[in-house]
Amino acid sequence: MKTLLIGIALLAGIASLPAAETPAPNYYELRIYDVTSNKLDGVVERFSETVNPVRQKHGIECFGYWTSRSTNGDKFIYLMAAASKEELQKREEKFGADPDFKAGYANSNKKHGKTVDKIVLVPLSVASEMKLDLTTSKTPRGFDLRIYSVLPGKLDAFRDRWRDHAVRIYERHGLHSIGWWVAEKTDAQGNDRFIVLLAGGSFDTIQKSISEFHKDVEWQGIEKETEKDGKLRSGVEAFKMKAADFSPIK
User: Where does 36-115 show beta strands of DSSP type E?
Assistant: First the structure.
């Protein structure tokens, strides 16, 4: 009886131990699709009905799916994560060979024809101090994806300024930081690419927040001080995005 009680106590102690935390992903991948004219609904349908479910079956983690409409053409954008680039590639190979994916893709092509003109794949590295916030809002949000071209030799200064100042000041003006990354490869001009994902209200509200950010007296002082020896960036490409209905983050 004593032995039985000891065994029960040990089992109870094991059961009460905290669950091991799942390691944070070490690799992220951003994909930007240039959508064929008037075919965005077809792309969304294919991802909703085929791509996303089959990727989930193969354990591929996707944080968000977004659409972006502009006069420059529609975009379909998503962000994936994995323990490593090799791990994601291994899972993607199994996903691509899955009969359900092949059948769904064939049906989509038959129904919609060509839907994508170009796919841009951006491997990303994450800084250890970056705080990723994937909390889903109870109210609809707009998202702002910004890809900064950072001048050679200025990446550390730009990243420090973003982390220590920009995130906080954007928050003050209604734009919340989801996360930030650095592209593994430079752009065609040899500039580093610093990628940030912000969330706010409507697209009009986001634009207003950005305008207020640049007018902020504290920010203007920080920008002047950090650029006393020259500019840190040459430009930025921005996408105003809406989360797809099946996106994990909204």
Answer: 61-68, 75-82
pLDDT confidence of 24, banded at 50, 70, 90?
A: low
The whole-angstrom separation of Cα 231 and Cα 223 is 9
Residue 227 is given by DSSP the state T
Q: What residues does 192 pair with on adjacent strands? A: 150
130 — phi, psi (to 5°)?
-70, 130
Q: What is the pLDDT of residues 80-136, one digit of tens each?
A: 999 999 999 999 999 999 999 999 999 999 999 999 999 999 999 887 777 788 888
- Cβ neighbors of 101 (< 8 A, separation 6 or more) are 50, 51, 54, 95
User: In this predicted model, what pLDDT tens digit does every residue of 190-202 receive, in sequence order?
Assistant: 999 999 999 999 9
Tokens of 140: 């609809």
Beta-strand runs (E) in 7-126: 27-35, 61-68, 75-82, 116-125
Domains along the sequence of the chain with CATH? 27-125 (3.30.70.100), 142-243 (3.30.70.100)
Q: Which residue has the tokens 């996408």?
A: 239
